[in-house]
Design brief:
heterodimer, A: three-stranded antiparallel sheet, 3 strands, B: nine-stranded antiparallel sheet
Chain lengths: 289, 233
């Protein structure tokens, strides 16, 4: 048997047994948790991870690197234990965490810390497949939500509309609108972060550029959702609540797409602006000297 | 052994352990009937008469509501005190209180979904020898109706409130072996405007309820109190 076929059969064996353990969990999450806005990116993320592993397929031949049996076994076994407990009790969080541990363990047993370094981006992406506990998501997005509604109301109030808000309850004309968790679009923050991370990886961004991109996520999301909310309120004012609700149901994905595009576009603009500012300042300094 | 054969052996070993774990995990956890706290029948667990309280047949509750998944049992009763006070007791029990997507439905969201506004939420502790119960007090208001609510959750064998402490209890049971996935929501509510007096009544009802139960029965409603565990071991 040639080495090529042997290598392929080893990877198939690993992938197959991986799916036997985690496959049922994926199926269950596909029907429940991954349908939610805060976790909609996870199935796609899985495909990205597979693509990255394919891209790095030269690593499937065990590299000539020392393996780390002790940490590898520890991670692998603790991962299996967590997977066992999580799957048996039907708790997705420990089961998905187990996935990370098992994967890291296999990497260490396959090619030592060298493999972990090579595939550290995959490990980072696996971190984003973990389900975020709802109360944590709520605590993080609640202040942003009330900020958003107070801004929207402030703008429309300045423009002369009869509008007021009490917390997340907006009173417009005869309507009372409740800005719910999902409506605020802020649950897509996690998906946007993942998008940004993948983008910077593909474009081989430098560290400052990546940092700039990550810093942009929050303001861009807030801006896009503010626009969405303003359109919703204006539609409700002029066309009635039915039109407003219709917009509400179509605008979610559009807002996500808009914020994604704006984010990636701005990430290119930033360094240019910084470079121009810097060079003009240097020129000025030269001139003055 | 050539390095390649070594890798192959390692690979087979890894696959085998993954498959064995799958084999062991995909049968859901079975509760041993020998453990008393695991078979629960709410209707027989909670007596119709406790202390000065007497269950009253109520017109509103004549058609018993079917429990909504993940709950497998639902108990809804109205108790009447000899002094004239009324109290509604509601217990929802789920044998498989599964992970996060099926987390216990908080009374907060239940009431809000029915158009109530939660005007107050406060956490306290109900303490008595052998009993230490975290309790959340809510005031729900809809138009002129003020409903005062006291509730707590049981996660595995611990009484908790939603949030971090519930998650901690779940993980503790998960990692140290316990009933991570069963749980219940116990809610006591009554109408009234004088909050403190009504909450004192709730406390009296809870203590009356817990004191009529045997130690094991009490554990299934109020959890295993932390200081008690060491004594009982």
């Amino acid at each position: 048997m040639n080495t090529q076929a042997l290598r392929l059969s080893m990877v198939t064996l690993l992938l197959g047994s991986w799916l036997i353990l985690f496959g049922p969990l994926y199926l269950r999450l596909w029907q429940t948790h991954w349908q939610e806005e805060s976790a909609g990116h996870v199935p796609l993320l899985g495909l990205v991870i597979l693509a990255l592993l394919w891209q790095q397929r030269r690593l499937w031949i065990p590299p000539h690197q020392p393996i780390s049996p002790l940490p590898g076994c520890l991670l692998f076994i603790s991962g299996l234990w967590l997977a066992h407990a999580g799957i048996q009790h039907g708790m997705p969080l420990p089961a998905m965490m187990a996935q990370l541990l098992v994967f890291a363990g296999i990497l260490l047993l396959w090619g030592g810390w060298f493999m972990v370094r090579q595939l550290r981006f995959v490990l980072l992406l696996l971190l984003f497949t973990l389900p975020v506990p709802p109360y944590l998501l709520y605590t993080l997005t609640a202040p942003l939500k009330s900020l958003l509604s107070s801004w929207a109301v402030g703008i429309l109030h300045e423009a002369g509309y009869s509008i007021a808000h009490h917390g997340v309850m907006i009173v417009l004309d005869q309507y009372r609108l409740l800005l719910a968790d999902a409506c605020s679009g802020l649950h897509s923050l996690i998906s946007l972060t993942v998008l940004a991370l993948i983008y910077q990886h593909l474009c081989r961004y430098s560290w400052p550029q990546t940092l700039w991109l990550l810093l942009l996520i929050l303001p861009v999301t807030l801006l896009c959702n503010l626009i969405r909310l303003l359109i919703l309120l204006l539609l409700t004012h002029s066309q009635g609540i039915a039109q407003g609700l219709q917009w509400h149901s179509v605008s979610g994905l559009a807002t996500f797409a808009l914020s994604g595009l704006l984010l990636l576009a701005l990430s290119h603009v930033g360094p240019h602006v910084a470079a121009t500012l810097l060079s003009s300042r240097l020129k000025n300094r030269r001139r003055s000297s | 052994m050539s390095p390649f054969v070594q890798r192959l052996t390692g690979c087979v070993f890894i696959s085998a352990s993954l498959i064995v774990t799958a084999w062991q995990s995909h049968t859901p956890a079975v509760y041993e009937p020998s453990k008393p706290s695991t078979i629960l029948d709410l209707a027989t667990l909670v007596p119709a008469r406790l202390g000065q309280w007497q269950q009253t047949p109520d017109q509103h509750l004549q058609a018993p509501m079917a429990p909504i998944p993940p709950y497998t049992q639902l108990l809804e009763r109205i108790y009447h005190h000899s002094s004239g006070a009324w109290i509604m007791l509601s217990i929802a029990y789920g044998e498989q209180q599964l992970g996060e997507e099926l987390q216990p439905h908080r009374p907060e969201s239940c009431y809000q979904a029915q158009g109530f506004t939660i005007t107050r939420s406060q956490d306290t502790k109900l303490q008595q020898p052998g009993i230490q119960l975290p309790i959340r007090r809510l005031i729900a208001q809809r138009h002129q109706r003020h409903e005062l609510i006291s509730y707590w959750l049981v996660q595995g064998d611990q009484a908790v409130l939603p949030g971090l402490s519930r998650l901690a209890a779940q993980w503790q049971a998960l990692l140290l072996g316990g009933h991570a996935s069963h749980g219940m929501v116990i809610r006591i509510s009554s109408l009234g405007s004088h909050a403190e007096a009504t909450y004192r009544q709730h406390d009296r009802f809870i203590l009356d309820l817990l004191n009529t139960l045997s130690t094991t029965e009490r554990m299934s409603l109020a959890g295993r109190p932390v200081p008690m565990t060491k004594e009982s071991l």
